[in-house]
Amino acid sequence: MKTLELQSLTRSFRDVKALDKFSLSVNQGELVSLLGPSGCGKTTALRIIAGLDHQDSGTVTIDGRNISEVPTHKRNMGMVFQQYSLFPNLNAEENIVFGLTMRNATKIQKRTRASELLDLVGLSDLGGRYPHQLSGGQQQRVALARAIAFEPEILLLDEPLAALDAQVRYQVREEIRRIQKVYGITTIFVTHDQEEAMSISDRVAVMNQGQLEQIDVPQKLYEFPSNPTVARFIGSMNEIPSSIEGQKVKVLGSLKSIAAESEFKENGDIVALVRPEAISLSNSSLEGVPGVLTNISFLGPISHLYINLDDGTEIKVSQSSHQVPRDIKDGKIFLSINSDSVMVANA
Predict the structure, then answer these.
(1) Are residues 126 and 134 in contact, defined by beta-carbon separation less than 8 angstroms?
(2) What would the pLDDT profile of 22-47 be if each residue is shown by its tens digit?
(3) HSE toward the beta carbon, residue 13, CA cutoff 13 A
């Protein structure tokens, strides 16, 4: 049975349609990220799930029970925001058990739960500290512990890492995933950062203009995007100007066949979408088309090579650093690709 179902949610703000018949199914214990650019509707969807906003049409159900009219405080959901939103007059332990206090838990129950969660998030010695005495990462861990203290059915995370610096963001991200797995909480994670979404999620739902473009496990989403919008948003993508001749597209010396019933027209302007790691390099003119190597960016295990084609198009090629020939230098080089790695889109 699906734990959470969003069915044809629509939400408009004046002339702006934030959600447009948006549907999503999330399984019990699954962590699903809502990924998309600013304004795509992901936070609106999260707020509707939480009951902080209300859809114009559509339903929200948990285990088949329609909760669309259930008030926020009765939905049994934990939520963590981008800004930690801790109570400044309460220490870490008191913040964590605030939800239990509202549910009339006993002092022993609260003390036991606080101790368990402080240990879980690595703050067992800091329960007596107030928010201003904690770092950003520590405050967000307290916020996470507070959100799960009362054992919610659903955990909602609204860009919880955005306010943290890079190293702390990585650490807290790993903590979120570990804790989510320990408790098996069904979780919705909102982010515009594709690396966050791909690394933390069981599945990623890519949103655009209030609609669901594609949902899948991270690897399939990257390797088999359903359309150019997803391909462009997930990972890096070269866009190479091309044209169709005889139902084929020529890209870096390879021919990509196009179905006769496709939307693309003969001699029409299109672009070939190619991942940087899908391109092969050679010093031989027998293998591929010529280009001029202009720069190499070394990033430890990965290197990015930038190559200009004769028509001025810049191509980015990504390779494991140990695969880049040590004698390579600026100058002519040849590029080739397997046509199966090409996606075609309108220019």
Answers:
(1) yes
(2) 999 999 999 999 999 999 999 999 99
(3) 8
Alpha-carbon separation of residue 142 from 110, 139, 260, 325 (angstroms): 15, 5, 57, 49
Spelled out in words, what is the top-level CATH class assigned to the domain 238-346?
mainly beta
Pick 2-233's CATH classification: 1.10.10.10, 3.40.50.300, 3.40.50.10610, 3.30.70.100. Answer: 3.40.50.300
244 strand-pairing partners: 249
Question: Percentage helix, strand, coil, to 5, in the chain?
Answer: 30, 35, 35
Summarised one tens digit per residue, pLDDT across range 128-166 is 999 999 999 999 999 999 999 999 999 999 999 988 888
Contact 133, 89 (CB under 8 A): no
- Measured between alpha carbons, how far is 287 from 157 in angstroms, rounded to an integer? 49
Closest among 26, 21, 32 to 3, alpha carbons compared: 26
Q: Left if phi > 0, otherwise alpha if psi is -120 to 50, otherwise beta: which for 312?
A: left
The residue extents of the domains of the chain are: 2-233, 238-346
